Amino acid sequence: MCLAVPAKIVAIDKDSFSAEIDVMGNTRTISVMLTPDADLGSWVLVHAGQAINVVSDEEAQASIEIWEEILREQG
């Protein structure tokens, strides 16, 4: 089973196909090679260090709410 986590692009370098993302307050550098339409401020689904899909604000927020609920239940 694969999981993808929603993240917001906070900086992007299209020349190197990399972006800095914010995932629920944590930042990481990922590849955006698979998502050429991703831009600064875009929400993307991230799996294994790769942005695999650009998603809407609504879809990202719904997914974040589910992740937060899971984290609360883990206590």
Using brief descriptors, characterize the structure shown.
single chain; 75 residues; alpha+beta; SH3 type barrels; 5-stranded antiparallel sheet; 24% helix; 43% strand; elongated
Short description:
The protein is of the alpha+beta class and 75 residues long. It has one helix at residues 57-74, and strands at 5-13, 18-23, 26-31, 43-47, 50-55.
Can you describe what's shown?
With 75 residues, this protein is an alpha+beta fold. The protein has a single domain (5-74), classed as SH3 type barrels (Roll). Helix content is 24%, strand content 43%. The protein has one helix and five strands; from the N terminus they run βββββα. The chain has one helix at residues 57-74; strands at residues 5-13, 18-23, 26-31, 43-47, 50-55. The protein has a five-stranded antiparallel sheet, covered by helices on one side. A hairpin with a 4-residue loop joins strand 1 (5-13) and strand 2. The longest helix is centred in the C-terminal third of the chain and has 18 residues, at 57-74. It is elongated. It starts with a strand and ends with a helix. The mean pLDDT is 94.
